[in-house]
Every structure is written in C-alpha cells, then in structure tokens.
C-alpha cells in the first residue's frame, strides 16, 4: 500500500497537496505524541492560512479549487520532493522496513507503458528513414560529381599506377639499418642540410646574416681591386708577349734567371738536399742533352724545321728556341760562387770582385776547382782553341769566359752575360780586350746596338777583322761538326753551295747562319761522296744560288706586288662590282624610264563618265586610272576625241539598253511577287439577291462580305532592294535535314544553334580538341569487372586522395589468394564427400 | 584632274633618279613550304602581345590603381578582372615590403611609435620574404599564357554566351560541357595559329612610283630562279583560243584549245601528262576532284578523260555544254548548256542529279561560289542568277549591268562577287546583302575575271590583263599589275598556292607572276601541292567519305545548323490546338458487396474500372471527331478550292 501511494505521489502532481497530510497522518499513527500532534495542528493551521491568502489573491477562475483551500503551487521550487517528505525518516530509528522500501523505490525505474503497435512502428520507421537519408546523403556529392564528369572510366576504383616522385620516396623513407640510422641522425641534426620549404640551409642563412653590409662592401671592393689588378697584369703580359724586341726579352730572361739563382741560393741555405737534387737534375739533363744532341738539330723534327726555316719565320723561331734549349741544357752549372761571378749583373761590384778574386785564389790552389774550364775544353776543344787563337792575350779567366763564345756568339741569349763579363773585364783587364769582346757581342745585334757601339767608339777595322775571324771559325766548325753527324740520316739537299752563304749573309740573322751550317754539314757528307767536279760546280753554283735568292727576293717582291695588285684589284673589283650593280640598277630603270615616258605619252586620258542618275544604280562608276590601255591610240588628243565619241555612243546605247533592262526586271519582279502573294478568294455571286446583268456590278457591300481576305504576309526580303529578286520559297531539300523541334533542355533556338554550330570533325578542329569533342561519356575497360561502388573503398579513396597516392593493389593479391585457397578447400571437401560415398 | 596628275608623274619620271633604285620585294608563297601541313587555318596575321608591368606604381592613388587594373584587363583580355585584381594587389603588397626594405637606415631617426609600426611591418615583411625565399615559389603568372583575343575572335565560329542556363537542372552540366568544349577548341586553334609562319608576298612601290609600271621581266629579274621558272609562255598558235584550268592544289594545268587540242601538264616541272586532239570543238575544260580525271565540254556532249588522255566517259546527259564547273566537295559536275539547261552530274556515282531549265538562252558566263557551291550565271540582259540543284528557280537574281554580262567571279570567302558587262563596267558586289560595293569604268568590258586566294582580282580586256590587289576591301585607285599579250585572251585563272596567274589566249598559254596572289600556307589535308600518289589515293577516299550531298547546297552556309523555325512554329501551334484530355473527376463510391467482395483491393479495382471506362469513351469520341475532320479535309482537297457554290452543298454527315 505504502509503496503504491508513493508512486502515485510521484506520478500525479495533482495529488501533491494531499500527500504531506497523509504521510504525516501515518507517522502520527505510529507514535502518537502530543507534541507532534500539536505541531501537526499548527502546520495545518498555517496551511489554511496560506490557502486563505491564496484564495484572496486569486482573480481568475481555476479548476483546482478544493474545499480545503489546497491549490497547486506553480513555482517549481516549492514542489515537494520525495526526499523532503521522507527526510523525517532519517532522523528516526524506527520504521526500518519502510526505509528499505523507499530506498529500493528510489533506485528502481519503472518503464513506460509501451505505445500502441502501429504508432511504435511509425516511429521506428521515421527514425530509420532519417538514418538512411543521412547515410545516403553522404553519397550525394560523389554522385553529383560523377554526373557532372566529362567522362567516367569504369571500373571507378583503379589502382594508382603513377610512379612515385622522388619527393614522395624521400618522405616515406625510414632509416632501418644502423648505418642508415646513423646517417639520418647526422643529417637530421646538421645545419648544413637543406630543408624542404626553405631555399637556404640554416648555416647559410646564418652566414648571410653574419656578414654585415659594410663588411660585404669591403669584401666586394677588395675583390674588385683584385680583379682589376688581375686584368692589368694580364694586359701587361699580353703586351709583353707581343713585344718583338729581342733585347727586351733577353733582359726578361736574364731577370728570370737571376731570380732562379737567388732561389737556388736560398735553397742552398734552407734546403740543401733539394738544392743538390736540383743541381743534379740540371747536370743530368745536360749530360743527356750532350749524349743525345736532341736539341742541337739532330732530330728529324729539327732537320725538317731547319729546312723550312729559311722561308718560315715560325720554324725559324722554333729552331732558335731549340738551340737555346740546347745551350741551356749543355751549360755547366757551376758552384754557386762561380755562378754568381758568371751571371750576376746587378750584384754589387765589390761583392763580385770579392767573389772573383776568391775564385781566382782557389784556382791556383785547387786543381779540381779548375775543372769547369777543363770540362769546357773537353766539350768543345776545337772551338776553344779557336777562341784561344782569337784571344791569345787573354788570361785564363778570360778563357774561361770565352769558352762560351762560340756557342753564345750566334745567339742572343747570353748576350747580357757577355756584357756582364765585359764589365768585369773592364775592371780587371785592359781595354783592348774589352773592345774585342764587345764587338763580338755586337755582331749579333747590329740594329739598335749600333748606337751603343758608336758610343763605345769602336773601330770599323777591328770589327771587320773580327768578322773575318768569325767566318773562319765558322768554316772550321763546319769542317768539324760533320764528323759528329755523319751517323745521321743522309738527306738530299736541293740547294747546293750554300756553305758560302754564311759568309754572304753575315748580316743576316744568326739563326739562319746556323741552318746554313747544319745544311752544309750534310752537304759536306755529300761532298765526300761526290767528285770534285761537283764541288766546283757548287762553287760555281754559289753565284747561281745568289741569283736564285735574288730571284726569290724578286719573287717575293713580285708576290708582294701581286698582293698589292690584287688588293688594289680587289678594291677595283668592288668598285667595278658596285659600278656594275649601279649599272644594273640604272639600266632597267633607264629603260623603264624611257618606256614610261613612252607609255605616259601613250597613256590615255580618260574622263570621268557623267553619272547616270538612274534610280536603280545609285553609285556612280569610278574610272580605274591605268597607264596602260588596251586599244589605245598613241595621240592623246586623238584618244580623247575617240573617248568622247565612244562615250557618246555608249551613252546612247546605255540609254536604250537601260530602259529595256530595267523595265523588264521590274516587271519580272512584280510578277514574281504577285505569284508568291496569297490571293483573296472572291465568292460573290452576281445576281444573287439583287439584280444581275451584263452591265450590273454586284454591290460593294456584297463584294466585301463575300471575299475571303488572306492575311497579309510578311514583306518580301527583296522589297527594299530594287535590283534583286530573291527566291522566297523554303528550300525543302535542306529543310529535311534541319531540326524541327527544339530539344527539351534548351531554352530557345539561339541556344540550340549555338550548341550545334561548332563543328566536331577534325577537319575544323585541332586534333586534341577533336578528341575531346568525341570522347564518350562512359568508358569501360575491356575484360574488367565493373562492381558497384563500394562505400568503404570510395570514401577511403577520397581520403587517400586527399593525403597522398595510396596503394590499392596491396590488398588485392591477398584476396585472390584467399579465394584460390577457399576454392581449393571446396574441392578437397568435394573429393572427400565423393570418397565417402564410394565407401 | 587626271591630266595634271599624269603630267606630274611624268615630270617626276623625267628627272634623273636620286635613289636610282627600284625595290622589288618578292616572296614566293608556296615555294618553301614542303612538309608543313596543318589543318584548317587559312588566314594569317601578326599580333604583338602587350604585357603590362605587374608592378603598379606605388605613388599612385587608389583611383589610379583602379585605372591600372582596367588597363591590365584590357590588354590581357583573357584573365578575368578579379584575377587580375588579385594579381595586382599581390604585387603591390610585395612591392610595399620591397620599398620599406630599401631604406632600413631611416628607421632610427623616426619616433618610437612609427618605429614600432615599422617593426611590425618589418616582421610581416619578413614573413613575406620567407615566403619569397621558400622553394615552392608561387608562379607569378599561373596557368597558360593568355591568348590574343583577336585571334580567338578569328577562330570563333559561334558565340557560346547563351550556353549557360538550361531548362532543366540536369541539362545544365551538359550545356556547360558543350560550352567548355567549344571554347577549348577555339582556344587551341588560336594557340596553334603560330604554326602558319608564311606571309604572302607582294610588291611595294617607292613613293611616286606605281607597281603597275613593272613589267613581267622586272619581276622575273627580281625573283629567285625557281619562281622565275614559273613564268613561261606556251606558243600554240594552231588550235585557237585556249581555255585553261588549274587543279585545286595548283599543281596541274589543263589546256583546251577551241579547235580540239587538249593537254594536261604538270606545269611546275613542265611535264606533259597527255596531249590529244578530240577532233571537235571544245568549249571548256575542268579538272575533276583529282588530277587523274578531267572533263572537257565538247561540241555535242561532255567527256571525261583520264590523265593518259583515254576517254573514260561520254556524258550524254550533259549535252551541248558551254561552261563547266566542278564542285569538289559535292562531286558535282555542273554544266551550262547552249540550250539554257543547268545540269548537275554526280561524278562519284555517274548519275544526273538535276537538270534545270533556266529560261535563258546561252549559259556561257558561269562561275561557282566556292564557299556554298552555288552556281552563278551571267546573262545577256545584264542579270546574274544564282542557282542550286534543289530549287528550280534562281535563288537570287541580280540586275548588275545595263548590258550583257561578260564575266562573273566570286572570291574565296564567298562574300564578294565581281561582274563585268558590255557596258564597260566592273562591279563588285557584296553577296551577303546583294549590294554594290564598288563600280568602276574600265577601258573595255572585262572578258574574264578571276579572284585569287588572297583577294587579287584579275580582269582581261582584249589582250590586256589587269590585276587589282585587294579589290573588295578598298577602292581601286590603279591596277596592281598590267600585262599585255599579243593575242586575245580566252581564259584566266589564278593558280592556287602559287603567285601565278594563268592566261589562255588565242596563241597559246602564258603564265604570269603576280607576287602575293597565292595563299602562303597550304593545308596538306585540304589541297596538297606536293601530294604523292599514295596521299592522293588516301585523299580521294577521304573526299568520297566526306562527300556532301547535293541537298545541302543553299545560299546560307549555316542553314543546316539552324532550326527550321517555320515548321517548328506550325507544329507548336498544332499541338496547342489539340484538345488536351482533362481527367474527369469521377465521384463513384462502389457499393458494398457481400462475401468478401468488398475488400479494399476489390473496391479500388472496381473504382478504377469505372474511371477507365469513362475515359475510354471520351477518347473514342474525340478520335471520331478527328477522323471526321480529316475526312472533310481530304474531301475538300479532292474537290479543289472552295467553290462559290459549295455553300449550297449539303453535308453528308
């Protein structure tokens, strides 16, 4: 009972007012107490008081009016809760059963009374519908997209066959092996690694930041400066390279040499081992050179060059270089002290002197120290002897110096050395010697040094003498050298008797002399074999050779002349050509001019025809002015006359022709227009309802009434064109092919016409556009199964598309495998079943 | 006026020339185009693109900026305005930070406030800068390069502006797609315009000189050897005035002497293909679709020969022909006969399509409109008539001259027609509105007229040929070139893709050089002068496949793509006339029946049955009425038009 009561209390709010009383009553039933009773009474009275108040306040009629004055409390806060009602139980220790019951009630929830079945179903249906629509609406964009798509290729789920880009690969890369991991660690932490999004590495950025503007400017300025310097020096070198002065180059070389020596000195002090090595190397080169005579002219190359040297300055230069090389290599490298005494020009004279004196001292004492001179003697004994002949008076020191002479004489290279020696000698020796040596040196370069010579006041006689001596020595050398070269290949020499050319060409360049010498060597060999006759011949031929040379010179001159001539000729040719061109230009022009003049004289002068003010032809004709006339009389006036006559004739003809033509045309047009016009139907019966007869016309009223009037059609297209008749009837042939009904989606004909007027064929479109025009809406791959769209796949694909190219093909092979396996299983089972049956 | 002018020129000419040079610029048209074969683009022009500096000046005010934007859109054309605006704004932003970057030293001197601002800006700029430096730089000119709007306009066959809205929602994407496709095709062809590299040449005269003064030998002297070799004369005095015809690719020449001599020549190599005498009078000769067949209009009938000179057909259907025209896309051989018949014969099947009696006597002035295959005749009454095989009456009839028309020619575009008459007038007509554009007096009526591909007009007057350049676009002041022959001209045609004008005359044939006459860029699929045998065969098959039926020949080229509005209107009217069947509201409640016959389904069925019966009856009635109407109509037709006394007739029904 109690529980039921309580539930009713909970359910029906209307009974709320009664409950407290009831509860209280019950409680009062259990333990009757005066105090309690008093309190109850008081509470009841208070309630009634409230009720009284309420009734007084109430203005609107309400349903719940009880005689006890209970009324519903509308405020939520004032609603009575179960807990409030039962709160008194908490304080009391009795009524344990009731407490328990209440607790269970509080915990328990009682289900609603189920709805009626149809209602329930309706509800579930509506909910299901909502869910379904929600689910399906997910497809909406996809479907829309597919509908809009220009082309759909089935199956829609196609594996991504595109190759991965390197970027993607690197993104996916994971370091696995320890080495990879290590490298990755290094790379990852490093500032010098580029990042994906930035142009510069952090280190670079830092570096950029670190450099301030000023610094950068400075650096730039410095760089500029260096660059400028470089260009200057480059230019300088280039200029120097171009300088042809031998003396200049000699000086240069000398300087270079000096520098090297100095370096050697330094080396001696700092690194004696390398110094020794260098010296050894030089010695070895010298020995090898002496052994091989590679640079003396023994090689094939040298011989060839020598052959061409006479005519080719380049070859000459090459030979000279070679000889120089030879000299360089064959030069004995003395001990440093001697070296210094040899070559140093710019050294302090005192120092030199000291050194020299020391050398002298040593010479006397130490025989080994004399070795160089001896060795030089050994090298070229004959020359030395010869030189000795030349310089009998000279002492040993001079001898030593002079040992170089025969070789050096003809070359420029050691000229400066010689001069240096000369200076030394100036100090040490008498002047006569000096002059001699000086002269010797000066033989080589007669050009500019002549002035120096003059300054030094050299006698010409002495010079001559020297020359003679030289020639003699040369002759001797010639005689000697062949022995050395006899082993070499013999060579036919076309030119004979050039042995004496040396004498002749003394003034010529020393190199040439050398060639001569070499050539003569060969010739000498030949001589030995040949008879004396030939020698005589040679001697005779000397003059002839000279003459030849002269001829050559002449030839050269001729060539030059020719060249000049040709040059001039060329110029003249050009001139000639230009003249010719001019002529060409002029002649036709002239001709044309003449023609033009003729033509212009012939040209007819056509008058404007007076415009025929016919109504049909509003535009007046224009005369095309032309210089040419078909049937033209030469005389202008006559032409004019003819023109006038012609004009008259024509105008008359036109006047007659016009009328006919135009009238005819008008008539025709009217007829055609009438034919095309729908005619009114006259249904008037004369005499019907009135008098009829021969002369009696039916009344106007009747006529009007009984004629069926056709609707006025649109005006003819040619109604405003006087000289045109257009065919108005529809061309049925074309109409057959025309569209007669507007397709449904088009709003108007114009739209439709626009949509079909772009031709589709490849005759009118570029190939690409053509293919796009005709591409089908749906393409299916042959042999592939078209499955319905799989929800998971599609949405997954969309997701994947958003992220990156996924691999769809990963799962497929697995599935296939599964299938095949399952098939196998099925087969096995079947077999088993069959077997069992058999059993 | 004229006199004084001529005198002036005369005096000038008599002076010694200061420059002394006459520059003759000449370019061969189809000389060096071997192998360049592309499609469907005939005309060429050069346009220099204008690009605007994307950095707008910062100093300008906002209005100026707007102006800049305007200018930009005008010049670029292709980019939409919003896009351009976006661009400009972007650039201006960038420019801003660049600007502030320029003067970092000034920041110190400014007040704190400005400094702060600057610093914030600086930070922003830094961000920008980072963006700038980042490797994935944004393309400042994204997408394809804009296409010149003029070029687009050139290749646009139709507007697509209507193709935006569809009646149904489902039709909308489709419509958009067609629009996109059309625009794409137009854009692509505009883009590939640069593949037409060659310009047609021409002669430019110095000031005070006239190109008409130039003689053929001047031109020959000025041009290269191969071009010079294209000028030649054939002296054939025996077989009288010669008609001539060049093949469509300009490679082959057909000569027909009036006294029966017919010869086909590969005129560039001067190789004779065949030569014969048909022993009959010939009126005209024409190449058919390929160079292996040609038609000769002989005394009695038209004959077709092959390039060996073997007679293939004698077309007795085309009798007494005077003029021949071949419509290459339709494979139709049209003849104008001396008896006034215009006959069309389909060469591909050998059947006569139509033969129309024109109502004129001799149809000896004839030409075709190359753009719409309409045949033009010139008549003795000064009229020119236009014919199609589908209509037995002339499509249009123009009164052009006061006297007989001597020759008619229509230009390549099909928009202009030149006529000359016995009244010594040369007139140019616009065929779109049949109005006379220009009207000239010439010394004598032009016996023959011919338009070149580039719009030169050649007119023969007796033994003189005059060439007018650009005849219809502007008024002719003086002829472009003049050439005088020693005999009367009987045939005149420009050679396609060559700067050559062929002239047949009574003493043979002469080929003249007219610089700038031919189309410079040939389309190898359309007409290939360097066609091989294989290509020719393929082309023939393709031509046959793409053959246009004679029904398609109309004055209006675009007729096929137009809706037949007349019939459509009529149909709609008729449909509206039809009484629509309104569903009658039938209030019928089925009776209650026993034995389970009143279940819901059964009741519904009963209800439906009653409804159907009522509707059926209605339809029957309507059909009855219709039938009656129809019968009446047919009866009326049988009886002929309504007679006066019909009203007294009693209705049988």
UniProtKB/TrEMBL annotation, chain A:
| Entry annotated with the keyword 4Fe-4S | no
Q: What is this protein called?
A: U3 small nucleolar RNA-associated protein 14
- Biased composition (Acidic residues) is annotated at 9-33, 452-465, 553-562, 575-586
The record's GO CC annotations read:
small-subunit processome
- Basic residues bias located where? 484-494, 829-839
Q: Family per UniProt?
A: Belongs to the UTP14 family.
- What does the entry give for GO biological process? rRNA processing
Biased segments, Basic and acidic residues type: 466-479, 495-509, 534-552, 793-828
Ranges where the record places region Disordered: 1-61, 363-409, 426-509, 526-607, 793-839
Q: Name one Pfam family in it.
A: Utp14
The record's principal subcellular location, in a coarse class, is: nucleus
The entry's keywords? Nucleus, Phosphoprotein
**Organism placement in taxonomy:** Eukaryota, Metazoa, Spiralia, Lophotrochozoa, Mollusca
Where is the sequence biased in composition, kind Polar residues?
40-60
Q: Which PANTHER family match?
A: U3 SMALL NUCLEOLAR RNA-ASSOCIATED PROTEIN 14 (PTHR14150), U3 SMALL NUCLEOLAR RNA-ASSOCIATED PROTEIN 14 HOMOLOG A (PTHR14150:SF12)
- The organism is Patella caerulea
**InterPro entries the record matches:** SSU_processome_Utp14 (IPR006709)
Q: Where in the cell is it found?
A: Nucleus, Nucleolus
Automatic annotation (TrEMBL), chain B:
**Segments annotated as WD repeats:** 398-439
Which cellular compartments is it found in? Nucleus, Nucleolus
The GO annotation for biological process reads: maturation of SSU-rRNA from tricistronic rRNA transcript (SSU-rRNA, 5.8S rRNA, LSU-rRNA)
Alphabetical keyword list? Nucleus, Phosphoprotein, Repeat, WD repeat
Q: What is its main location?
A: nucleus
The source's domain of life comes to Eukaryota
The record, for InterPro entries, names: BING4_C_dom (IPR012952), WD40/YVTN_repeat-like_dom_sf (IPR015943), WD40_repeat_CS (IPR019775), WD40_repeat_dom_sf (IPR036322), WD40_rpt (IPR001680), WDR46/Utp7 (IPR040315)
**Any one cellular-component term (Gene Ontology):** 90S preribosome
Regions of biased composition (Basic residues) lie at 1-20, 36-47, 85-97
All copies of domain BING4 C-terminal, residue ranges: 479-557
Is the keyword Nucleus in the record?
yes
UniProt key word Repressor: no
Q: Which parts of the sequence are annotated with region: Disordered?
A: 1-64, 85-150, 594-613, 626-653
Biased composition (Basic and acidic residues) is annotated at: 121-139, 643-653
Q: What does this protein do?
A: Scaffold component of the nucleolar structure. Required for localization of DDX21 and NCL to the granular compartment of the nucleolus. Part of the small subunit (SSU) processome, first precursor of the small eukaryotic ribosomal subunit. During the assembly of the SSU processome in the nucleolus, many ribosome biogenesis factors, an RNA chaperone and ribosomal proteins associate with the nascent pre-rRNA and work in concert to generate RNA folding, modifications, rearrangements and cleavage as well as targeted degradation of pre-ribosomal RNA by the RNA exosome.
Its subunit composition reads:
Part of the small subunit (SSU) processome, composed of more than 70 proteins and the RNA chaperone small nucleolar RNA (snoRNA) U3. Interacts with DDX21, NCL, NOP2 and EBNA1BP2.
Tell me what this protein is called. Answer: WD repeat-containing protein 46
Q: Which species does this protein come from? A: Patella caerulea
Source taxonomy: Eukaryota, Metazoa, Spiralia, Lophotrochozoa, Mollusca
């Amino acid at each position: 009972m109690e529980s039921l009561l309580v539930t009713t209390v909970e359910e029906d709010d209307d009974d709320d007012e009664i409950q407290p009383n009831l509860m209280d009553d019950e409680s009062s039933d259990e333990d009757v107490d005066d105090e309690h009773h008093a309190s109850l009474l008081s509470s009841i009275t208070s309630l009634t008081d409230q009720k009284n108040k309420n009734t007084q306040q109430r203005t609107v009629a309400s349903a719940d009016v009880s005689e006890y004055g209970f009324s519903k409390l509308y405020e939520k806060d004032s609603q009575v809760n179960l807990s409030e009602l039962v709160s008194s139980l908490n304080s009391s220790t009795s009524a344990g059963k009731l407490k328990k019951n209440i607790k269970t009630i509080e915990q328990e929830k009682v289900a609603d009374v189920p709805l009626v079945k149809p209602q329930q179903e309706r509800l579930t249906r509506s909910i299901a519908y909502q869910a379904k629509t929600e689910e399906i609406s997910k497809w909406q964009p996809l479907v829309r997209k597919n509908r809009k798509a220009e082309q759909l290729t089935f199956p829609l789920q196609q594996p991504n066959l595109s190759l991965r880009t390197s970027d993607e690969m690197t993104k996916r890369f994971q370091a696995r092996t320890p080495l990879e991991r290590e490298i990755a660690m290094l790379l990852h932490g490093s500032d010098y690694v580029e990042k994906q999004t930035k142009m510069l590495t952090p280190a670079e950025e830092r570096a950029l930041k670190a450099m301030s503007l000023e610094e950068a400017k400075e650096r730039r300025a410095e760089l500029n400066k260096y660059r400028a310097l470089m260009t200057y020096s480059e230019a300088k070198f280039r200029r120097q390279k171009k300088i042809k002065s031998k003396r200049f180059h000699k000086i240069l070389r000398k300087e270079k040499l000096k520098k090297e020596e100095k370096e050697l000195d330094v080396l001696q002090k700092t690194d004696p081992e390398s110094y020794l090595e260098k010296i050894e190397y030089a010695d070895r080169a010298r020995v090898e050179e002496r052994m091989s005579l590679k640079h003396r002219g023994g090689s094939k190359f040298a011989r060839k060059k020598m052959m061409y040297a006479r005519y080719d300055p380049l070859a000459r230069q090459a030979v000279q270089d070679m000889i120089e090389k030879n000299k360089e290599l064959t030069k004995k490298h003395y001990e440093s002290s001697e070296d210094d005494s040899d070559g140093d020009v710019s050294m302090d004279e005192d120092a030199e002197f000291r050194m020299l004196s020391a050398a002298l001292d040593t010479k006397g004492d130490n025989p080994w120290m004399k070795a160089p001179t001896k060795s030089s003697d050994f090298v070229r004994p004959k020359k030395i002897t010869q030189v000795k002949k030349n310089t009998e008076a000279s002492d040993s020191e001079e001898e030593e110096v002079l040992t170089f002479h025969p070789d050096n004489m003809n070359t420029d290279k050691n000229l400066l050395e010689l001069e240096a020696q000369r200076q030394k000698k100036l100090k040490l020796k008498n002047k006569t010697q000096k002059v001699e040596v000086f002269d010797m040196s000066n033989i080589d370069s007669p050009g500019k040094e002549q002035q120096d010579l003059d300054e030094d006041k050299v006698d010409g006689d002495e010079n001559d003498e020297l020359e003679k001596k030289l020639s003699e020595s040369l002759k001797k050398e010639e005689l000697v050298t062949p022995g050395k070269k006899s082993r070499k290949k013999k060579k036919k020499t076309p030119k004979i008797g050039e042995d004496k050319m040396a004498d002749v060409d003394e003034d010529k360049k020393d190199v040439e002399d050398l060639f001569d010498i070499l050539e003569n060597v060969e010739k000498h060999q030949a001589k030995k074999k040949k008879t004396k006759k030939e020698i005589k011949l040679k001697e005779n031929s000397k003059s002839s050779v000279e003459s030849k040379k002269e001829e050559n010179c002449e030839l050269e001159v001729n060539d030059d002349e020719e060249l000049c001539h040709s040059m001039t000729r060329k110029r003249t040719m050009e001139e000639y050509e230009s003249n010719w061109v001019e002529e060409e230009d002029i002649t036709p022009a002239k001709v044309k001019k003449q023609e033009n003049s003729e033509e212009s004289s012939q040209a007819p002068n056509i008058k404007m025809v007076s415009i025929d003010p016919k109504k049909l032809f509003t535009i007046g004709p224009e005369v095309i002015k032309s210089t040419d006339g078909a049937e033209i009389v030469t005389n202008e006036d006559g032409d004019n006359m003819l023109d006038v006559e012609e004009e008259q004739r024509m105008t008359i003809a036109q006047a007659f022709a016009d009328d006919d033509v135009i009238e005819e045309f008008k008539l025709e047009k009217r007829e055609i227009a009438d034919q095309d016009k729908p005619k009114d139907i006259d249904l008037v019966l004369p005499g019907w309802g009135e008098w009829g007869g021969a002369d009696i016309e039916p009344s106007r009223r009747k006529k009007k009434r009984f004629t069926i009037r056709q609707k006025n059609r649109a005006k003819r297209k040619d109604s405003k064109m006087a000289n045109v008749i257009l065919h108005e009837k529809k061309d049925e042939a074309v109409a057959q092919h025309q569209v007669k009904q507007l397709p449904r989606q088009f709003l108007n004909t114009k739209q439709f016409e626009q949509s079909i007027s772009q031709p589709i064929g490849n005759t009118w479109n570029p190939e690409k556009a053509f293919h796009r025009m005709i591409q089908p809406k749906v393409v299916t791959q042959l042999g592939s199964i078209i499955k319905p769209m799989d929800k998971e796949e599609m949405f997954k694909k969309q997701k994947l598309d958003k992220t990156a190219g996924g691999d769809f093909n990963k799962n497929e092979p697995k599935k296939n495998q599964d299938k095949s396996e399952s098939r196998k299983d099925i087969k096995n089972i079947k077999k088993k079943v069959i077997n069992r049956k058999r059993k | 006026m004229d006199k004084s002018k001529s005198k002036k020129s005369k005096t000038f000419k008599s002076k010694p020339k200061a420059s002394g040079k006459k520059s003759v610029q000449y370019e061969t048209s189809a000389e060096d185009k071997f192998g360049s074969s592309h499609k469907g683009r005939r005309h060429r022009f050069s346009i220099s693109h204008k690009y605007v500096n994307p950095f707008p000046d910062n100093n300008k005010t906002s209005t100026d900026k707007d102006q800049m934007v305007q200018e930009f859109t005008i010049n670029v054309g292709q980019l939409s305005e919003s896009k351009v605006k976006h661009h400009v704004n972007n650039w201006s932003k960038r420019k801003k930070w660049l600007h502030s970057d320029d003067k970092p030293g000034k920041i110190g001197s400014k007040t704190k406030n400005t400094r702060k601002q600057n610093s914030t800006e600086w930070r922003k700029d830094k961000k920008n800068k980072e963006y700038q430096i980042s490797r994935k730089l944004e393309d400042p000119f994204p997408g394809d390069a804009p296409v010149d709007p003029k070029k687009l306009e050139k290749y646009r066959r139709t507007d697509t502006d209507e193709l935006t809205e569809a009646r149904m929602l489902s039709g909308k994407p489709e419509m958009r797609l067609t629009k996109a496709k059309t625009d794409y095709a137009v854009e692509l062809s505009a883009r590939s315009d640069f593949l037409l590299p060659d310009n047609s040449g021409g002669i430019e005269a110095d000031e005070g000189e006239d190109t008409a003064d130039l003689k053929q030998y001047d031109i020959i002297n000025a041009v290269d050897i191969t071009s010079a070799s294209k000028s030649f004369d054939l002296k054939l005095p025996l077989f009288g005035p010669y008609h001539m015809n060049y093949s469509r690719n300009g490679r082959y020449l057909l000569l027909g002497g009036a006294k029966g001599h017919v010869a086909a020549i590969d005129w560039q190599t001067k190789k004779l293909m065949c030569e014969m005498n048909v022993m009959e009078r010939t009126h005209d000769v024409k190449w058919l679709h390929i160079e292996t067949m040609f038609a000769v209009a002989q005394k009695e009938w038209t004959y077709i020969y092959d390039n060996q000179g073997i007679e293939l057909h004698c077309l007795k259907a085309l009798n007494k022909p005077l003029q021949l025209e071949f419509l290459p896309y339709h494979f139709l051989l049209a003849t104008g006969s001396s008896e006034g018949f215009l006959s069309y014969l389909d060469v591909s099947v050998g059947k006569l399509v139509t033969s129309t009696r024109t109502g004129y006597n001799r149809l000896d002035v004839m030409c075709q409109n190359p753009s719409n295959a309409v045949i033009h005749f010139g008549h003795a009454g000064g009229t020119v008539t236009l014919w199609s095989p589908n209509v037995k009456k002339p499509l249009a009839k123009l009164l052009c001259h006061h006297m007989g028309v001597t020759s008619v020619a229509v230009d390549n575009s099909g928009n202009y027609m030149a006529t000359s008459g016995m009244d010594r007038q040369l007139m140019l007509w616009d065929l779109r509105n049949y109005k006379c554009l220009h009207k000239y007096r010439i010394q004598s009526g032009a016996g023959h007229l011919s338009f070149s591909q580039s719009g030169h007009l050649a007119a023969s007057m007796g033994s003189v040929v005059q060439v007018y350049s650009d005849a219809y676009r502007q008024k002719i002041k003086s002829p472009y070139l003049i050439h005088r022959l020693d005999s009367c001209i009987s045939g005149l045609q420009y050679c396609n893709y060559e700067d050559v004008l062929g002239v047949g005359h009574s003493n043979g044939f002469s080929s003249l050089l007219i610089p700038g006459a031919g189309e410079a860029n040939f389309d190898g699929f359309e007409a290939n002068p360097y066609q091989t045998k294989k290509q020719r065969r393929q082309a023939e098959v393709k031509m046959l496949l793409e053959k246009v039926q004679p029904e398609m020949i109309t004055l209006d080229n675009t007729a096929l793509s137009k809706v037949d509005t007349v019939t459509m209107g009529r149909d709609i009217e008729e449909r509206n006339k039809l009484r629509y069947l309104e569903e009658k509201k039938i209030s019928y409640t089925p009776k209650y029946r026993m034995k389970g016959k009143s279940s819901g389904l059964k009741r519904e069925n009963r209800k439906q049955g009653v409804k159907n019966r009522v509707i059926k009856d209605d339809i029957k009635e309507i059909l009855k009425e219709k039938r009656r109407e129809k019968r009446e109509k047919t009866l009326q037709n049988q009886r002929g038009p309504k007679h006066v006394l019909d009203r007294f007739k009693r209705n049988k029904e």
